[in-house]
Hints:
- It is built from 13 helices and 12 strands.
- A hairpin with a 2-residue loop joins strand 4 and strand 5 (65-69).
- It has helices at residues 12-20, 34-39, 74-78, 81-86, 88-95, 100-105, 108-113, 119-122, 164-170, 188-191, 274-280, 287-297, 310-326, and strands at 5-7, 25-28, 47-50, 59-62, 65-69, 174-179, 182-187, 210-217, 226-232, 243-252, 255-264, 271-272.
- Helix 11 (274-280) packs antiparallel against helix 12.
- It is globular and about 60 Å long.
- The protein starts with a strand and ends with a helix.
- It has 330 residues and is an alpha+beta fold.
- The strands form 3 sheets. A 5-stranded antiparallel sheet has the order 4-5-8-6-7.
- Among the domains are: 5-49, 2-Layer Sandwich (Uridine Diphospho-n-acetylenolpyruvylglucosamine Reductase, domain 2); 222-326, CO dehydrogenase flavoprotein, C-terminal domain (Enolase-like, domain 1).
- The mean pLDDT is 97.
- The structure holds flavin-adenine dinucleotide.
Amino acid sequence: MNQFQYTRPAETAVAVKSLAKEPNGYFLAGGTNLVDMMKMGLVVPDKLIDINRLPLKKIEKTATGMHIGALASNSEVAEHAYIKAQYPLLALAINAGASPQLRNMATVGGNLMQRTRCPYFFDTAMPCNKRTPGSGCGALEGINRMHALFGASDKCIAVNPSDMNVALAALDATIHVTGVKGPRAIKIGDFHRLPGDHPELDNTLQKGELITSVDLPTASSAYNKHVYYLKIRDRTSYAFALVSVAAALHIENNTITGARLAMGGVAHKPWRLSTAETFLKGKAVNEDNFKHAAQIAMQGAKAYEYNKFKLKLAPNAIVQSLKLATGLAS
Ligand SMILES: Cc1cc2nc3c(=O)[nH]c(=O)nc-3n(C[C@H](O)[C@H](O)[C@H](O)COP(=O)(O)OP(=O)(O)OC[C@H]3O[C@@H](n4cnc5c(N)ncnc54)[C@H](O)[C@@H]3O)c2cc1C
Protein backbone atom coordinates (compact mmCIF):
# COMPACT_ATOMS: atom_id res chain seq x y z
CA MET A 1 0.00 0.00 0.00
CA ASN A 2 1.24 3.46 -0.85
CA GLN A 3 1.36 5.81 2.13
CA PHE A 4 0.65 9.48 1.46
CA GLN A 5 0.11 12.62 3.47
CA TYR A 6 -3.29 14.30 3.38
CA THR A 7 -4.00 17.95 4.16
CA ARG A 8 -7.14 20.05 3.87
CA PRO A 9 -6.19 23.73 3.93
CA ALA A 10 -8.82 26.47 4.13
CA GLU A 11 -6.75 29.15 2.37
CA THR A 12 -5.74 29.21 -1.28
CA ALA A 13 -2.24 30.56 -0.53
CA VAL A 14 -1.60 27.73 1.92
CA ALA A 15 -2.76 25.10 -0.60
CA VAL A 16 -0.51 26.54 -3.30
CA LYS A 17 2.54 26.73 -0.99
CA SER A 18 1.87 23.24 0.24
CA LEU A 19 1.95 21.76 -3.29
CA ALA A 20 4.94 23.83 -4.39
CA LYS A 21 7.06 22.04 -1.79
CA GLU A 22 5.88 18.61 -2.91
CA PRO A 23 7.22 17.29 -6.25
CA ASN A 24 4.84 14.33 -6.13
CA GLY A 25 1.81 16.04 -4.64
CA TYR A 26 -1.66 16.53 -6.14
CA PHE A 27 -4.66 18.72 -5.49
CA LEU A 28 -7.76 16.66 -4.74
CA ALA A 29 -11.12 18.11 -5.81
CA GLY A 30 -14.07 15.77 -6.51
CA GLY A 31 -11.67 12.84 -6.76
CA THR A 32 -13.62 11.18 -9.60
CA ASN A 33 -10.56 11.03 -11.83
CA LEU A 34 -7.63 11.24 -9.40
CA VAL A 35 -8.83 8.54 -6.99
CA ASP A 36 -9.56 6.15 -9.90
CA MET A 37 -6.03 6.71 -11.17
CA MET A 38 -4.60 6.09 -7.71
CA LYS A 39 -6.52 2.83 -7.44
CA MET A 40 -5.12 1.72 -10.80
CA GLY A 41 -1.56 2.62 -9.85
CA LEU A 42 -1.30 5.34 -12.52
CA VAL A 43 -0.74 8.00 -9.89
CA VAL A 44 1.25 7.24 -6.75
CA PRO A 45 1.22 10.46 -4.72
CA ASP A 46 3.30 11.38 -1.68
CA LYS A 47 0.79 14.03 -0.70
CA LEU A 48 -2.83 14.94 -1.45
CA ILE A 49 -3.93 18.50 -0.83
CA ASP A 50 -7.69 18.39 -0.54
CA ILE A 51 -8.90 21.76 -1.86
CA ASN A 52 -12.57 21.36 -0.98
CA ARG A 53 -12.41 23.87 1.88
CA LEU A 54 -11.08 26.66 -0.36
CA PRO A 55 -13.52 29.47 -1.18
CA LEU A 56 -13.71 28.62 -4.89
CA LYS A 57 -17.32 27.54 -5.35
CA LYS A 58 -18.96 30.78 -6.38
CA ILE A 59 -20.87 31.08 -9.66
CA GLU A 60 -21.81 34.68 -10.39
CA LYS A 61 -22.53 37.18 -13.11
CA THR A 62 -19.87 39.89 -13.31
CA ALA A 63 -19.43 43.15 -15.20
CA THR A 64 -17.37 41.29 -17.81
CA GLY A 65 -19.36 38.08 -18.04
CA MET A 66 -19.61 35.01 -15.85
CA HIS A 67 -17.34 33.85 -13.07
CA ILE A 68 -17.35 30.14 -12.26
CA GLY A 69 -15.29 29.03 -9.25
CA ALA A 70 -12.99 26.06 -9.87
CA LEU A 71 -14.75 24.07 -7.12
CA ALA A 72 -18.26 24.59 -8.47
CA SER A 73 -19.56 21.14 -9.26
CA ASN A 74 -20.44 20.20 -12.82
CA SER A 75 -24.09 19.85 -11.71
CA GLU A 76 -24.16 23.30 -10.10
CA VAL A 77 -22.86 24.85 -13.31
CA ALA A 78 -25.20 22.93 -15.62
CA GLU A 79 -28.24 23.69 -13.44
CA HIS A 80 -27.45 27.36 -12.82
CA ALA A 81 -30.42 29.39 -14.08
CA TYR A 82 -28.36 32.18 -15.69
CA ILE A 83 -25.94 29.74 -17.32
CA LYS A 84 -28.83 27.69 -18.69
CA ALA A 85 -30.43 30.85 -20.11
CA GLN A 86 -27.36 32.69 -21.41
CA TYR A 87 -24.69 30.00 -21.91
CA PRO A 88 -26.83 26.96 -22.79
CA LEU A 89 -23.97 25.40 -24.78
CA LEU A 90 -22.02 24.93 -21.54
CA ALA A 91 -24.97 23.39 -19.70
CA LEU A 92 -25.70 21.03 -22.61
CA ALA A 93 -22.09 19.89 -22.90
CA ILE A 94 -21.72 19.24 -19.17
CA ASN A 95 -24.99 17.30 -19.04
CA ALA A 96 -23.80 15.11 -21.94
CA GLY A 97 -20.97 13.84 -19.74
CA ALA A 98 -20.68 11.08 -17.15
CA SER A 99 -23.74 10.51 -14.89
CA PRO A 100 -25.70 12.70 -12.46
CA GLN A 101 -23.82 11.20 -9.51
CA LEU A 102 -20.44 11.92 -11.09
CA ARG A 103 -21.47 15.43 -12.12
CA ASN A 104 -22.45 16.11 -8.50
CA MET A 105 -18.90 15.27 -7.38
CA ALA A 106 -16.86 16.47 -10.38
CA THR A 107 -15.62 20.06 -10.28
CA VAL A 108 -14.88 22.56 -13.03
CA GLY A 109 -11.15 22.57 -12.22
CA GLY A 110 -11.01 18.77 -12.14
CA ASN A 111 -12.89 18.48 -15.42
CA LEU A 112 -10.40 20.82 -17.12
CA MET A 113 -7.57 18.67 -15.79
CA GLN A 114 -9.03 15.18 -16.37
CA ARG A 115 -6.67 12.85 -18.16
CA THR A 116 -7.15 10.99 -21.42
CA ARG A 117 -9.21 7.79 -21.60
CA CYS A 118 -6.76 6.15 -24.04
CA PRO A 119 -6.76 2.47 -23.00
CA TYR A 120 -2.97 2.30 -23.38
CA PHE A 121 -2.62 5.10 -20.83
CA PHE A 122 -4.76 3.14 -18.37
CA ASP A 123 -3.00 -0.21 -18.90
CA THR A 124 0.28 -0.18 -17.01
CA ALA A 125 1.43 -3.30 -18.90
CA MET A 126 1.40 -1.29 -22.16
CA PRO A 127 3.81 1.36 -23.43
CA CYS A 128 2.52 4.92 -23.13
CA ASN A 129 4.59 8.07 -23.53
CA LYS A 130 1.95 10.04 -21.65
CA ARG A 131 2.18 7.80 -18.56
CA THR A 132 5.87 6.84 -18.84
CA PRO A 133 7.77 9.24 -21.14
CA GLY A 134 10.03 7.40 -23.56
CA SER A 135 8.21 4.04 -23.29
CA GLY A 136 6.48 4.35 -26.69
CA CYS A 137 2.87 4.67 -27.83
CA GLY A 138 0.78 1.49 -27.79
CA ALA A 139 -2.06 3.20 -29.62
CA LEU A 140 -0.09 4.13 -32.76
CA GLU A 141 -0.11 0.51 -34.01
CA GLY A 142 -2.81 -0.70 -31.65
CA ILE A 143 -6.58 -0.45 -31.31
CA ASN A 144 -6.93 3.26 -31.97
CA ARG A 145 -10.63 3.76 -32.73
CA MET A 146 -11.09 6.44 -30.01
CA HIS A 147 -8.04 8.39 -31.11
CA ALA A 148 -7.10 11.70 -32.69
CA LEU A 149 -7.62 13.05 -36.19
CA PHE A 150 -5.89 16.38 -35.64
CA GLY A 151 -2.66 17.61 -34.07
CA ALA A 152 -1.30 14.20 -33.00
CA SER A 153 2.40 13.31 -32.96
CA ASP A 154 4.42 10.12 -33.36
CA LYS A 155 4.65 10.10 -29.56
CA CYS A 156 0.92 10.24 -28.77
CA ILE A 157 -2.44 10.10 -30.52
CA ALA A 158 -4.65 10.32 -27.42
CA VAL A 159 -7.59 12.74 -27.18
CA ASN A 160 -8.90 15.03 -24.45
CA PRO A 161 -12.02 13.27 -23.15
CA SER A 162 -13.95 16.20 -21.69
CA ASP A 163 -17.32 17.45 -22.93
CA MET A 164 -17.21 20.63 -20.84
CA ASN A 165 -13.89 21.66 -22.41
CA VAL A 166 -15.40 21.61 -25.90
CA ALA A 167 -18.06 24.13 -24.90
CA LEU A 168 -15.49 26.26 -23.04
CA ALA A 169 -13.38 26.35 -26.22
CA ALA A 170 -16.34 27.50 -28.31
CA LEU A 171 -17.25 30.12 -25.69
CA ASP A 172 -13.74 31.63 -25.45
CA ALA A 173 -13.35 30.91 -21.74
CA THR A 174 -10.42 32.20 -19.71
CA ILE A 175 -8.84 30.01 -17.05
CA HIS A 176 -7.63 31.85 -13.94
CA VAL A 177 -4.84 30.17 -12.01
CA THR A 178 -2.59 31.04 -9.13
CA GLY A 179 0.80 29.75 -8.04
CA VAL A 180 3.69 30.76 -5.81
CA LYS A 181 4.62 33.39 -8.43
CA GLY A 182 1.11 34.87 -8.27
CA PRO A 183 -2.04 34.75 -10.40
CA ARG A 184 -2.28 34.62 -14.18
CA ALA A 185 -4.97 34.13 -16.81
CA ILE A 186 -4.78 31.58 -19.63
CA LYS A 187 -7.06 31.60 -22.66
CA ILE A 188 -8.76 28.24 -23.10
CA GLY A 189 -7.08 27.77 -26.49
CA ASP A 190 -3.68 28.04 -24.78
CA PHE A 191 -4.58 25.91 -21.78
CA HIS A 192 -4.59 22.39 -23.25
CA ARG A 193 -1.58 21.33 -25.33
CA LEU A 194 -0.96 19.23 -28.42
CA PRO A 195 1.23 16.22 -27.57
CA GLY A 196 4.34 17.02 -29.65
CA ASP A 197 7.40 15.49 -28.00
CA HIS A 198 5.93 15.85 -24.50
CA PRO A 199 2.59 14.06 -24.33
CA GLU A 200 3.05 13.68 -20.57
CA LEU A 201 2.01 17.34 -20.38
CA ASP A 202 -1.71 17.78 -21.00
CA ASN A 203 -1.76 21.52 -20.44
CA THR A 204 0.29 24.64 -19.79
CA LEU A 205 -0.34 24.79 -16.05
CA GLN A 206 2.98 25.10 -14.21
CA LYS A 207 3.75 22.62 -11.44
CA GLY A 208 1.98 23.76 -8.28
CA GLU A 209 -0.46 26.14 -9.96
CA LEU A 210 -4.08 25.94 -8.85
CA ILE A 211 -7.04 26.71 -11.10
CA THR A 212 -9.17 29.23 -9.23
CA SER A 213 -11.92 30.02 -11.74
CA VAL A 214 -13.17 29.89 -15.29
CA ASP A 215 -14.50 33.16 -16.68
CA LEU A 216 -16.75 33.51 -19.69
CA PRO A 217 -17.04 36.73 -21.69
CA THR A 218 -20.30 38.64 -21.50
CA ALA A 219 -23.18 36.53 -22.65
CA SER A 220 -24.45 37.85 -25.90
CA SER A 221 -27.98 36.83 -26.67
CA ALA A 222 -26.42 36.00 -30.03
CA TYR A 223 -25.31 32.67 -28.70
CA ASN A 224 -28.18 31.49 -26.56
CA LYS A 225 -30.72 30.61 -29.21
CA HIS A 226 -29.25 28.52 -32.02
CA VAL A 227 -27.17 26.17 -29.97
CA TYR A 228 -26.49 22.42 -29.94
CA TYR A 229 -24.04 20.00 -28.34
CA LEU A 230 -23.98 16.76 -30.30
CA LYS A 231 -22.14 13.85 -28.74
CA ILE A 232 -21.62 10.63 -30.68
CA ARG A 233 -20.60 7.71 -28.49
CA ASP A 234 -20.77 3.94 -28.28
CA ARG A 235 -23.59 4.01 -25.70
CA THR A 236 -26.15 6.74 -25.24
CA SER A 237 -25.02 7.43 -21.69
CA TYR A 238 -22.02 6.97 -19.48
CA ALA A 239 -19.57 6.90 -22.39
CA PHE A 240 -16.93 9.26 -23.68
CA ALA A 241 -17.31 10.94 -27.07
CA LEU A 242 -16.05 9.34 -30.25
CA VAL A 243 -16.76 12.75 -31.74
CA SER A 244 -18.65 15.69 -30.30
CA VAL A 245 -19.55 19.08 -31.72
CA ALA A 246 -20.42 22.28 -29.87
CA ALA A 247 -22.25 24.63 -32.21
CA ALA A 248 -23.66 28.09 -31.54
CA LEU A 249 -24.85 30.45 -34.25
CA HIS A 250 -26.14 33.98 -34.45
CA ILE A 251 -28.71 34.30 -37.20
CA GLU A 252 -30.47 37.34 -38.61
CA ASN A 253 -32.94 37.03 -41.47
CA ASN A 254 -31.70 33.54 -42.33
CA THR A 255 -28.10 34.79 -42.53
CA ILE A 256 -25.42 33.56 -40.15
CA THR A 257 -23.82 36.63 -38.57
CA GLY A 258 -21.61 34.76 -36.11
CA ALA A 259 -20.56 31.16 -35.48
CA ARG A 260 -18.83 29.32 -32.70
CA LEU A 261 -17.80 25.73 -33.34
CA ALA A 262 -15.57 23.26 -31.56
CA MET A 263 -15.09 19.51 -31.67
CA GLY A 264 -14.27 16.96 -28.99
CA GLY A 265 -12.86 13.45 -29.30
CA VAL A 266 -10.64 14.40 -32.22
CA ALA A 267 -7.50 15.94 -30.68
CA HIS A 268 -5.33 16.19 -27.58
CA LYS A 269 -7.18 19.44 -26.86
CA PRO A 270 -10.69 20.73 -27.59
CA TRP A 271 -10.54 21.52 -31.30
CA ARG A 272 -11.88 24.92 -32.31
CA LEU A 273 -13.11 25.10 -35.91
CA SER A 274 -12.09 28.68 -36.65
CA THR A 275 -11.83 28.38 -40.45
CA ALA A 276 -15.30 26.85 -40.63
CA GLU A 277 -16.61 29.65 -38.39
CA THR A 278 -15.13 32.24 -40.76
CA PHE A 279 -16.65 30.49 -43.76
CA LEU A 280 -20.13 30.42 -42.20
CA LYS A 281 -20.21 34.13 -41.38
CA GLY A 282 -22.46 35.90 -43.87
CA LYS A 283 -23.79 32.67 -45.37
CA ALA A 284 -27.39 31.57 -45.56
CA VAL A 285 -28.71 28.91 -43.23
CA ASN A 286 -28.80 25.83 -45.44
CA GLU A 287 -27.40 22.33 -45.59
CA ASP A 288 -25.04 23.04 -48.49
CA ASN A 289 -23.26 25.72 -46.49
CA PHE A 290 -23.10 23.43 -43.45
CA LYS A 291 -21.55 20.69 -45.62
CA HIS A 292 -19.01 23.12 -47.01
CA ALA A 293 -18.12 24.29 -43.49
CA ALA A 294 -17.65 20.66 -42.41
CA GLN A 295 -15.39 19.99 -45.39
CA ILE A 296 -13.26 23.01 -44.42
CA ALA A 297 -13.15 21.89 -40.79
CA MET A 298 -11.83 18.46 -41.77
CA GLN A 299 -8.86 19.75 -43.75
CA GLY A 300 -5.66 18.25 -42.36
CA ALA A 301 -7.40 15.34 -40.62
CA LYS A 302 -5.31 12.19 -40.39
CA ALA A 303 -6.76 8.83 -39.38
CA TYR A 304 -5.13 5.63 -38.10
CA GLU A 305 -5.96 1.97 -38.69
CA TYR A 306 -9.11 1.76 -36.58
CA ASN A 307 -10.46 5.32 -36.47
CA LYS A 308 -10.90 5.89 -40.23
CA PHE A 309 -14.67 5.85 -39.61
CA LYS A 310 -14.22 9.20 -37.83
CA LEU A 311 -13.26 10.82 -41.16
CA LYS A 312 -16.92 10.38 -42.13
CA LEU A 313 -18.44 10.60 -38.67
CA ALA A 314 -16.87 13.95 -37.78
CA PRO A 315 -18.06 15.99 -40.81
CA ASN A 316 -21.48 14.36 -40.57
CA ALA A 317 -21.61 15.34 -36.89
CA ILE A 318 -20.71 18.95 -37.76
CA VAL A 319 -23.49 19.15 -40.35
CA GLN A 320 -26.01 17.48 -38.04
CA SER A 321 -25.16 19.72 -35.08
CA LEU A 322 -25.60 22.81 -37.28
CA LYS A 323 -28.93 21.48 -38.56
CA LEU A 324 -30.09 20.76 -35.03
CA ALA A 325 -28.93 24.18 -33.81
CA THR A 326 -30.84 25.95 -36.58
CA GLY A 327 -33.98 23.82 -36.61
CA LEU A 328 -33.22 22.25 -40.03
CA ALA A 329 -33.31 18.93 -38.18
CA SER A 330 -35.04 17.89 -35.02
C1 LIG B 1 -17.27 6.50 -15.16
C2 LIG B 1 -16.92 7.90 -15.58
C3 LIG B 1 -17.51 8.43 -16.71
C4 LIG B 1 -17.19 9.73 -17.10
N1 LIG B 1 -17.75 10.25 -18.25
C5 LIG B 1 -17.42 11.49 -18.65
C6 LIG B 1 -17.94 12.05 -19.84
O1 LIG B 1 -18.73 11.40 -20.55
N2 LIG B 1 -17.57 13.30 -20.19
C7 LIG B 1 -16.69 14.03 -19.43
O2 LIG B 1 -16.40 15.16 -19.80
N3 LIG B 1 -16.17 13.54 -18.31
C8 LIG B 1 -16.50 12.29 -17.91
N4 LIG B 1 -15.94 11.77 -16.78
C9 LIG B 1 -14.84 12.49 -16.15
C10 LIG B 1 -15.28 13.43 -15.08
O3 LIG B 1 -15.89 14.54 -15.69
C11 LIG B 1 -14.01 13.84 -14.35
O4 LIG B 1 -13.57 12.72 -13.61
C12 LIG B 1 -14.21 15.02 -13.44
O5 LIG B 1 -14.61 16.16 -14.16
C13 LIG B 1 -12.95 15.35 -12.66
O6 LIG B 1 -13.26 16.33 -11.69
P1 LIG B 1 -12.89 16.10 -10.16
O7 LIG B 1 -13.26 17.34 -9.44
O8 LIG B 1 -13.46 14.83 -9.64
O9 LIG B 1 -11.31 15.99 -10.28
P2 LIG B 1 -10.26 15.18 -9.40
O10 LIG B 1 -10.38 13.74 -9.69
O11 LIG B 1 -10.30 15.61 -7.98
O12 LIG B 1 -8.92 15.76 -10.03
C14 LIG B 1 -8.55 15.47 -11.37
C15 LIG B 1 -7.21 16.16 -11.64
O13 LIG B 1 -7.37 17.57 -11.61
C16 LIG B 1 -6.49 18.16 -10.67
N5 LIG B 1 -7.24 19.30 -10.12
C17 LIG B 1 -8.49 19.29 -9.62
N6 LIG B 1 -8.89 20.53 -9.30
C18 LIG B 1 -7.86 21.34 -9.61
C19 LIG B 1 -7.65 22.75 -9.51
N7 LIG B 1 -8.61 23.58 -9.06
N8 LIG B 1 -6.47 23.26 -9.93
C20 LIG B 1 -5.49 22.44 -10.41
N9 LIG B 1 -5.63 21.10 -10.52
C21 LIG B 1 -6.80 20.57 -10.12
C22 LIG B 1 -6.18 17.06 -9.67
O14 LIG B 1 -4.93 17.27 -9.03
C23 LIG B 1 -6.15 15.85 -10.58
O15 LIG B 1 -4.90 15.75 -11.22
C24 LIG B 1 -16.26 10.49 -16.34
C25 LIG B 1 -15.69 9.96 -15.18
C26 LIG B 1 -16.01 8.68 -14.80
C27 LIG B 1 -15.36 8.12 -13.55
